[in-house]
Structure formats: structure tokens, C-alpha cells
Amino acid sequence: MATYRILARIVELGPREHLVTVSALAEDKDSTEVRMASLSTAAEARERKDFLVMSLATELRALGHVTVGMVE
Questions:
Q1: Is 6 exposed, middle or buried (0-12, 13-18, 19+ CB in 10 A)?
Q2: H helix or E strand, kind and range, residue 14
Q3: DSSP for 36-67?
Q4: Which pTM value belongs to this model?
Q5: Residue 21 forms beta bridges with which residues?
Q6: Per-residue pLDDT for the chain (72 aa), expressed as one digit of tens each?
């Protein structure tokens, strides 16, 4: 079991390209999980970010890990 902190970021690469990156960094071991997506609009990027955060946190909890917070 590990303790993870989730980091989420949206970067605007162009007027119609937004990159969403969600990472889970283990605090007590060398382990990182990363999810990425590229979307056309800022609204789609925000929705995808929320989805990726929730799905990654759910995956980690299902494996017996703990998530302690999110940084945006």
C-alpha cells in the first residue's frame, strides 16, 4: 500500500488544443501513474480533467492505496 498525491494540469497548446495531464505521485515509494488527454476546447479539457482525477483515484483505492489530496 502506498500514499499518493494527485496533480492535475491543463495546458493550452493552441486555440483549439488543450492538453490535460493527471499524475499520481507516491509519497512513500518511487512510483508514478500518469494519464493524459488532448481536447479541442477548454470546457472539454476541464470535464476530462475531472474524469481522469476521479478514475485514477478510484483505480488507486481499488488497489489498496490511499490518496491524500489534489494539487491543480
A1: buried
A2: strand 3-14
A3: EEEESSHHHHHHHHHHHHHHHHHHHHHTT-EE
A4: 0.90
A5: 9, 36
A6: 899 999 999 999 999 999 999 999 998 888 899 999 999 999 999 999 999 999 999 999 999 999 998 787
pLDDT attached to residue 34: 96
User: 15: left (phi > 0), else alpha (psi -120 to 50), else beta?
Assistant: alpha
How far apart are the C-alpha atoms of 23 and 14, rounded to whole Å? Answer: 22
Cell numbers placing 60: 488507486
Which positions ≥6 away from 19 have C-beta within 8 Å?
A: 10, 11, 13, 36, 37, 38, 45
